[in-house]
Model the fold of this input.
Amino acid sequence: NSNMAAPGAKGSLLFAFFCLLCNVLPSVVSTNDEYSEELLIVPFRSGHVYSHFEFTTLWHVDVAGGEGRENLQHFRLFPRALGQVITEYRVQEMHLALTQGLWQQDKWSYPVSSAPPGAELWVWFQREVQDVDQAWFGLTNALSGLFCASLNFIDSTSTAISNLSFRPQGLAEGLFSTNTSHLRYATLPRENVCTENLTPWKKLLPCSTKTGLAALFNAGQLYNTQYSSLGIHLRPVCRTDSCTEASLELRQTLSAVADPPAMNGKQDWSMKRYFSRSLAGPCPMAASSRVYVDITGNKTSKFTLKPEPTEIKATSHQGYHRKLAVYDLRTFPFRKERGLNVDMKWKKEVAYDKPFTPLLYAHRFVTGYGQEHGGIMSLLYNRHPHLEQQIIYMELVPWFTRMFLHTLKVETTEGNPIRPLLTRYTPGRDRQNPYLLEIVLTLPPDSTTRVSFSFERAFLKWTEYPPDANHGFYISSAVLTTVLRQADNFTVPPSTRGGLQAGLFGSSSAEFPLRLHTETLLISLPTPDFSMPYNVICLTCTVIAIAFGSLHNLTTRRFQYTDLKKANPGGLRARLARLFGRGKQTTAEDEPVQEGGTQDPGEENEDPGEESEDPGEESEEPGEESDGPGEESDDIRDQREHSGNEQRKSSNSETKNGSREEISTSDKKNR
Done:
């Protein structure tokens, strides 16, 4: 019977394993995702070198609707830590940027992803979310812990709901794209970005920094630049051209602008010199791994490129032609070349060219003086010689700079007023929400437009000042949103599809959306003298120590008379003898105390004539004593002084434990 039961047990185990495999297979199939890594290197005419890394993960799941939580359960290439956060808070689209430095629009053209200095976060939540504010603050705290940033300091005083500037960049159904109640936007212009933000960011990559393009990340070199920016961009995209199904796209971007002449005195640039290492190979999980080098400006052979690229591609957008050298890491002979080290060497040490002026750029600064009133002015430049340019200008002003809408002026530098086509204004409230201004303008061709307004500085409570209150307070960047008709100044033309390859070679659009950020502003508010409490404490303690201490001593100390001769008998020699333990010193002034009371000093040695010259001799008879000291002769007086000196010598030889009674007995014998 046992032999017959064994085949049945094996069959049941096989059946159970088959059922488990059938349940697991759909989950494995549902984790159909792709991963690609790309690097773009652009040498600017100003001598700077722009490096832009982009890591794209495309996951074929739909996060919208009630099935979104069930779809985001089995992770393969998509980072689990980020997936659990967006699932918990029902995120539809998210854009996070952590930036150090300012992008110089008039010298470096337009970046791949524009970001203001500090931290910027804007999120579209799914329409099933009932309490958007609660989901927003929960998401900021979760992202703060995930990226080691100060996003947990985002509150209602730094959060706004933009009506015009931030539309969904991914899929959006119907009126959801125009209903901004599920949108939240916030900035932290004072956020300091450093290596502690880079470490958790690179851990989200499938290969981390062990291999692939991420192996070039050297924190010391990346942050020793004029500009560096980390980005996380999450959005739903179409899976097919018919857009019947959706996929989830995650783009992790890292941008840096280096200045080789400032680093080594030459314009030469290479991976080993800049990143301190070369590429050893692609990430094995990446479907594609490429490096692009822009050689458009190398028409006259200004620099040489080594090693030879895999191929050279030419592209054209609206009459703007570009040439790119492509290194395909999948086919590059790493063993033969001992790694990939892209090296650009110029014929001259430094060769600068005049940069191309972009068609649209902006600058902003603070106006006014004093600590009560002030203003903000922005200069918007439209350098197209013939075409007007319509833009959306957005200002987010903190509550402590009380903005006056009636002072808003929009005019050209020639003094011609410009009437806004549309104005959206949200007044701020003290300690509750900031001021938000959005206006739609039409910039005349080849013109400079001024946008200015005034504000009043608020007086904060003393607990609301930061530790370095005299450093000042930051105002976040203004945002310009527009659509350009030319791609001349784009490093990578925008594309609805993710990845650099789609923007460089697959874009055929006639319109190119653009978002620009101006400078952040630093203003000073009325600040109390926080050193005054310290000064008051020091002054008070000094007064108490001097006045109270002296008064206390006068009222509590007891004074009594002390004879200095008796207090210090024997002088210096006696003190030294007592210090070194040589016994008690006695002097001629010390006389034995008689029993029954103290001896009167005036009664000492009533009859000096009774003292003998030698202590060993017997005293003279009483009848021979003189009647008084006045009748003594000079010989007797000298004899007494000599006997006194001998007596002092004998007393110095006494030990410390000798008693006054023995000394008095010796004196009687001497008499």
Remarks:
- The longest strand covers residues 246-258.
